[in-house]
Amino acid sequence: MIAEGDSKVVVNQVRQGISEDSIGGPVLRECLQILSSLSVCIEFRAVPRSANSAAHRVARKALLLSLVELESFDFLGWLL
Q: Which of 20, 32, 71, 73 is deepest in the core (most CB within 10 A)?
């Protein structure tokens, strides 16, 4: 499996298993814990922000949906 992100710093921290004491440190530590429990090999790649537009759209929509019932949202219809 390949996971892509547009932050080289975060991708490198995940690759190296580092969770620094920064604003995103707790989230990164949780991600590393989850990753260590998986039995799947995941390759992390840094990509330009322009290549990550679909993930950006999903993340922005998730923020907007935090106040809405997710079960009633047509995610695939929105994505396509």
A: 32
Question: Residue 38 carries which side chain, given as an amino acid letter?
Answer: L
Secondary structure string (H, E, C) spanning the chain: CEEEECCHHHHHHHHHCCCCCCCCHHHHHHHHHHHHHCCCCCEEEECCHHHHHHHHHHHHHHHHHCCCCHHHCCHHHHHC
CA distance 54 to 6: 12
Give residue-wise pLDDT tens across range 19-48.
Answer: 777 667 787 888 888 888 888 888 889 988
Tokens of 41: 């090999």
